Structures are given as C-alpha cells and as structure tokens.
C-alpha cells in the first residue's frame, strides 16, 4: 500500500498595498495562455499516477480589521482512494505567524482531505485608515514515499483584503442624492436650488456644526459652493442642504458632482466616500 504525506505550508505570501487595473485585451496572448496553464497546474498535480486537485482553486476574501475571523474550507481531492498521512503548518515565511490556521495538524486519512481554515483577524491588519491587500498562495506539498521519494506542490492562490475598522468617535459623511428644482422652459427665475442630501454613517458628530458642500457642473465646468451652520451630525442622521445655482440659459442634461465637506471642516473617519455624481435634466422632471 502506498503511503503519501500531505504537508500544508503557509509560505510565500507577499503583501501589496492598493491594486493595479487590469488591461483590456481582445484576444488571449501567449503570455495569458501560459498564465492560465500555470493556474491549472497550481490546482492539480499527479503523484505516482494519482491526481490531487484543490477545491477551491483560489480564495478571494475581504475582512474588516477587528471583526470575527473569516472561515473557509480547503479540500484536496484524490482521483483514487488511498490511505495517507498529513501534516499541516499554520505559519511560515511571507505572512504574519498564525495568520492562516486550519483545524487539522497531523494524522491519517483515506480519500479526500477536508480542512476547515480561517484568516485570523487578530493577525491581519489594515494599512492604518486604508485597506491592505495580501496576495500570494498557500503551497500544499504532496509527498509520496513509494519507492523513490517524489513531491509536488499544489498552490492555493489567495487574495485577502483587510479594511480598516471604522472610527466610531468621528463622523463619516456620504452624499446620498442630488436634485435640482423642477424647471420648465418658460421659467423666468434667475436661480434655482441644488439639493444635496447626505448621511452620517459614522459616529456621533454632534449638533450645531458647520458643513460645506461643493457642486460642480461637469458639463459647463461651473462650481457652486455653500457653507451651512447649525447642522445636525448625529450618527445615522440624514440632512439636505441647498446650493443656489443660476439656471438661465442652462438646458438639456448636465453631469453634476457633489462633494460634502470639501474643506474638511468636519473631522471624519473616512473621506473617500464624500463624492457623488449624477446626470440631471435641467428642464422637466428630475
């Protein structure tokens, strides 16, 4: 009877901050074909005539720093049922020690091997107030001791995004909608209002606050700005601010961009969600 040892090493995991945009292609280049073939090889190997296949072939997960651990399963499938031993290592080079752990450490098994694994939220951290992306792979080493020692690696390609934990001591303002007073072609008024609705998704920002908003007409490259006093920034509260906009000689559909708190009058835990864009028809219904 053949004896096979399976060792799971958490090695070779590199850390990158941010992500690059994928370039579009109308056909598959030789390089892309090679990449696809490599991914297939990473997920399936043959040792002594028995094929071992990873399921899933890759892991792509997102966690928030400080929340519960993110759990997933790893299965090593066999094309032929055999008895084998295995050893699992939950630490290694290239990532924080004990960052990825499994419920199996060592022992014997027959047939497919199912491992319950998780990303430890006590170990993986965000990049301050910005997300941090960990990319790499989990090598699973298949070793056969039948005759001459043979070993091959399965590689579970892994991407883990760690988002920062919200700072509930600060506000988090986000624009939820943008509207303009309904107009008609015969409307003779020189100005109308742009209504900017926003909500505080963060902690209690207090009341009686001064908030500013900037609206840009991207079609005409015009900017409208307003500062409003005595605004309620209680957590979860929705406000609607008005900005004066001259509408004379403005027709058809315009693209607008609204930004809440552009001058950072309010201390926020997250300012990446302060911009909202919308197309609005000036005359007629919004």
Describe what this molecule looks like in 3D:
With 286 residues, the protein is mainly β. The protein folds into two domains: 160 residues, Immunoglobulin-like (Sandwich); 109 residues, Immunoglobulin-like (Sandwich). The protein contains one helix and 19 strands. Strands 1, 2, 5, 7, 9, 11 and 12 form a seven-stranded mixed beta sheet that branches. The protein is elongated. The N and C termini lie far apart (75 Å). The N terminus is likely disordered.
CA-atom Rg in angstroms: 28 Å
Shape by Cα distribution: elongated
> What's the architecture of the largest domain, going by CATH?
Sandwich
Low-confidence stretches: 1-28
Extended strand count: 19
Under CATH, the topology of the largest domain can be stated as Immunoglobulin-like
Beta content comes to over 45%
In percent, how helical is the residue content? under 10%
Specify the CATH class of the largest domain: Mainly Beta
Which class best fits the helix and strand makeup? mainly beta
**Terminal CA distance:** 75 Å
| Biggest β-sheet strands, sense, barrel | 7 strands, mixed
Tell me, rounded to a whole number, the average pLDDT: 77
**Domains counted in the coordinates: how many?**
2
Order of helices and strands: EEHEEEEEEEEEEEEEEEEE
Our count of helices gives 1
């Amino acid at each position: 009877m053949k004896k096979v040892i399976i060792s799971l090493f958490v090695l070779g995991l590199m850390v990158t901050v941010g992500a690059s945009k994928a370039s579009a292609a109308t056909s598959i280049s030789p390089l892309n074909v090679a990449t696809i073939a490599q991914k297939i090889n990473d997920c399936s190997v043959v040792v002594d005539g028995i094929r071992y296949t990873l399921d899933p072939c890759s892991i792509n997960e997102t966690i928030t720093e400080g929340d519960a651990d993110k759990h997933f399963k790893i299965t090593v499938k066999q094309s032929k049922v055999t008895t084998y031993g295995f050893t699992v290592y939950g630490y290694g080079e290239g990532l924080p020690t004990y960052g990825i752990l499994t419920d199996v450490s060592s022992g014997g098994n027959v047939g497919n091997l199912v491992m319950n694994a998780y990303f430890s939220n006590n170990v993986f951290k965000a990049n301050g107030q910005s997300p941090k992306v960990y990319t790499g792979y989990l090598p699973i080493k298949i070793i056969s001791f039948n005759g001459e020692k043979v070993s091959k690696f399965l590689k579970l390609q892994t991407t883990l995004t760690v988002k920062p934990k919200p700072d509930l001591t600060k506000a988090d303002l986000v624009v939820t909608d943008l509207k303009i007073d309904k107009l008609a072609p015969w409307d003779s008024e020189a100005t109308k209002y742009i209504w900017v609705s926003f909500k505080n998704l963060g902690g209690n920002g207090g009341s009686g606050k001064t908030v500013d908003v900037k609206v840009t007409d991207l079609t005409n490259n015009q900017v409208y700005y307003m500062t409003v006093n005595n605004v309620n920034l209680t957590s979860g509260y929705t406000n609607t601010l008005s900005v004066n906009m001259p509408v004379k000689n403005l027709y058809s559909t315009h693209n607008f961009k609204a930004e809440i708190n552009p001058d950072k009058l309010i201390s926020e835990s997250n300012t990446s969600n302060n911009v909202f864009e919308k197309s609005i028809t000036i005359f007629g219904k919004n």
